[in-house]
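Let's do one together. I've listed all components of the complex below, 284 residues spread over two lines.
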Amino acid sequence: MSSLSALVNVHEKGQFGDFEGKDDKNLLSITESTNLLIVQIVQYKSSSLSLDNMQIDGLNLRDNPSLVSSNDSTRILWNGPRNWLLVSNKHDLLKEIEQKFNENEFAVTDISHSKAIIEIEGKEAKEILKKGCPFNFGELEKNQCLNSTYNGMSVTIDMLNDDPDKFRIFGLRSFGESLYHSITDASLEFGYIAK
Amino acid sequence: MLHIKCPHCGMRSQNEFSYGGDATVKRPELNKEVIDQEWDNFVYNRVSPRGKHLELWQHLSGCRQWIKVERDTATHEIFNTYKANEEIA
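Okay, and this is what the predicted structure of the assembly comes out as:
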């Protein structure tokens, strides 16, 4: 069975906005991330299990606000107290997670197909986010994440890199197209390449 | 626009929160005989104070946790925020 990405109907490749006369290398880029494993892990309030020895792909679940634990293939985002979002390109991790995290202590939910994911990269990336999101992006650093809203739509934003700034924006799949239009509209001023 | 310090996430915009009502209302004790007036007070009757007031808010577009916010209803100044299960002296 083939699957359609959330933004297949709107994500058109090419250069848009005020891109003329600008170096392609410095231009803001917008891509859709597809084929990622996304798992929500929630530890029940009644659970007193220590997380110190619980690892997924060599990464610990850490209950530190805004923190992202990461390696080359997997990122674990803090989503709230005892609540994490695992994002990985290793799809076989799901079995490992289900084995390690027993259902009496954790709720594990595969939400891979319920998210639209947009990646933006470039030195103006924070400016794009500031246009629709009330968070103070001046204080956000690499490997930090947040939940907030973008033009009224709930989003999770993960800062992947800071040289240049690179963000992954997760929105509900049903809001994907609206979110994409919001992000691309905000980017027109700077010019962007959709890859 | 208010800025509310979520005890879990830090300072965030009011846009991310949803108001949840009076945080001082206490449910009548379980297994205790309750008169109608007590139920009315718990379910319906609310005071509308001018000044400091303890309120429930949910960080709906953030960590999704309920929190308590001590706010001045006249000036909107926020004095303190607490986790939902925190006892306040």
